[in-house]
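Lab notes, practical 5.
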Amino acid sequence: MLSFNELEQKLSRRLLDVLIQAGLITVLIAFCYKIFSPFMSMMLWALILAVTLFPLHQRIARRFDGKQGRAATVLVLLGVLLIVVPTVILASSFGDSIIDLVHGAKDNSLAIPLPSETVASWPIIGAKLYTFWHAAATDLPALIQSMQPKIGDVTKKALGLVAGIGGDMLKFLFSFIIAGVIMAYGQDGQHSARAISRRFVGAAKGDEFATLSTATIRAVAQGVIGIAFFQAILVGIALLIAGIPFAGILAIVALVLGIAQLPALLISLPAIAYIWMSGSYDTVPAVLYSIILVVVGMADNVLKPILLGRGVDAPMPVILLGALGGMVSAGILGMFVGAVLLALGYQIFMAWVTIQNVESTEVDAADAVQE
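Output from the prediction step:
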C-alpha cells in the first residue's frame, strides 16, 4: 500500500511526463506547420483535385490494363493542356489589365465616360456617386491627387497582386502534378483516409465520415467550382478573341458569379453591347463575336449535366464566402480551396449535429420505455 507522499510523488512525476510529452508534441507540430505552411494551399488543392478526378483516373487506368502511374500521367497532361494553359493565358491578361489600369490612372490616359444625370437621383448614394464619377471623368489626376495616400496604397497592393500571379500559376501547375502522384497511389490513400477518419471519430462512424467528406469534395469541385471555372475560362477566351478590354478581370468576375450560381450572361451581354456601341467592329465580326459570347454565356446549361448537377447540399452563401475568403487569404488558388473546405466543414458539422440529435432521441426513447 502506497503512502500519501509516495502517491503524490508518483502522480507528480506522471503529470510532469505528460506535460513534457505534450510540450514536445506541440513544438513538433509548430515546426511542421511552419515548414509546410508555404505549400498549404497548393497541397490542399492537389488533394482536392486527386479526390475529384480519381474516378476518371480509374476509368483511364482500366484502358491501360490497370497501370495507375501511366493513367495518372495521361490525366495530368490532359489537365495541363485543357485547364492550366488557358488559365495561364487569362491570368496573364488579368495582370496586364491591372497594370493598364494603374498606368492609365497615373498618366490620365484612362477614358471614363460622363455619368448620366439619373445617377444623381438614386437613393442614398446617388448624389455622392454622381459627384465622384463626374470628377473622375473630367479631371482624374486631380481626383487621384486628392485621395492620396489611399490611392498609393491601393496601387501597391494591385501591383503586388500582379507580381503574385506568376507564383499562383506555378502552384496551379504543380498542384496538377502532385495530384497525379496522389492518384497513382490512390488505393493506398483511400485506406489511409478511412483509417484516419476512424481514429478521429471512432470505428463506428469513421467510414461514414470519410464517405461524406469524399462526396462533398467531389460535389463542390465538380458541381460548383468545376462549372464556374470552365465557364470563366470559356468566357475569358471569348473576350480575348473579341478584343474586349480587361478580359482577365472580367473572367475573374465571371468565376465569382459562377460560384454564386449567377449566369455568365451578366458578363457576356454587356460585352456584346460594347461590341455594337463602340463602333470599332465591322458587322460580320460583330455578329460572330456576339454569337460566341451568347454561347459561352449559356455554357453552364451544358456543363451542369456533364459535371453531375449543381453540386452539394451546402448553402450557396457558405460556398461563396469560402471562395471569397480563400481568395483574400491565399490568392486565386485559395478561392478554389476555400470554397471546398468551408463546404466540407459545414457538411461535417451538420452531420455531427444530426448524429448527436439521433443519439439523444434514442436515449430519451429508451428512458421513456424503462419508466
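Observations recorded by the TA: The chain has two domains: 40-184, 202-355. The chain is about 85% helix and 0% strand.
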